[in-house]
Amino acid sequence: MIRDVFWRIIRRSILFVGINTENAETTAIDINGNEAVYFYDNHNYSHIIWDNGDYIIDISSNIDKNALISIAKSVEKVG
Q1: Cα–Cα distance between 24 and 37 in angstroms, integer?
Q2: Do residues 47 and 41 make contact, with C-beta atoms less than 8 angstroms apart?
Q3: In what order do the strands lie in the sheet with 46-51?
Q4: What does residue 38 show for φ and ψ, rounded to 5 degrees?
Q5: Distance, CA of 30 to CA of 69 (rounded, Å)
Q6: pTM of the predicted structure, to 2 decimals
Q7: Residue pLDDT, tens place only, 10-69
Q8: Are the C-beta atoms of 8 and 48 separated by less than 8 Å?
Q9: By CB atoms within 10 Å of each CB, which of 9, 53, 55, 75 scores lowest?
């Protein structure tokens, strides 16, 4: 099976991000002190979305939840 990981990083000041969670159960999780939303969609992809103060970060993948959380926790601000 091919594993995909998609990243989207958006400057917070220029865009409002809407999340389509229709028919999905959302869970609040912590990513490095930031509240994040985790959900699993009807296309068999897990999503983690959070705001680090400067950017909205959205990571989506067909890997398992714990692996996706590990990837999200590895994201750091630089500079």
Answers
A1: 12
A2: yes
A3: 5-11, 55-61, 46-51, 34-40, 26-31
A4: -110, 135
A5: 9
A6: 0.81
A7: 776 665 666 667 778 889 999 999 999 999 988 888 999 998 888 889 999 999 999 999
A8: no
A9: 53
